[in-house]
């Protein structure tokens, strides 16, 4: 069967009318470098095939076989066990020393605290036992002539009496706890101290 191309003239005219394109110079440079590399590889392969062959003498192969057949000898890392023990102890001491040094340099401290429960049973009314004696000393002071020292002591006693009244009122409303008991005990000690000073003036 004969093949006959149709519209050949139209195809050739369309090809001639296609726009022309000129590649950049860098493209040609890259193509040339690639072709040169292929040429060099080709020459290298040819030169490799032309190299003379070398067969080592049988003695070389025998030596290699003997070395492979021998069992490898394990070399002791520590010839002297005492030295190994000493080195291990030194390493442990060095680690502990470094840890202690870093702990101190960082300022890390361990704070231990405990909570104590104070049984306030039996304390009720203890702070009122001396009220009669205090009132008696105050009444005796009132009969003495005015004294600057006594006036200052009376003022301090009145302030402590007010603080005691506020604290006992809070304890009545909110209940007794260890902190309130400690504050009240401190107030009572201060009151006793002032009353003794007042009694010394009589």
Describe the structure.
With 202 residues, the protein is an all-alpha fold. The protein has a domain at 126-200. The protein is built from 7 helices and no strands. It has helices at residues 8-16, 25-49, 58-69, 81-105, 131-142, 148-174, 178-200. It starts with 7 loop residues before the first helix and ends with a helix.
Helix content: 55-70%
Mean pLDDT: 75
Any low-confidence stretches, pLDDT <50, length ≥5? 117-123
Span of the ends, CA to CA:
155 Å
Q: Count helical runs.
A: 7
What's the β-strand tally?
Answer: 0
Query: Structural class, judged by helices and strands?
Result: mainly alpha
SSE topology:
Blueprint: H1 8-16, H2 25-49, H3 58-69, H4 81-105, H5 131-142, H6 148-174, H7 178-200
Helix pairs in contact: 5-7, 6-7
Write a short abstract of this structure.
With 202 residues, this protein is an all-alpha fold. Helices cover 66% and strands 0% of the residues.
List keywords for this structure.
7 helices; mainly alpha; 0% strand; elongated; 202 residues
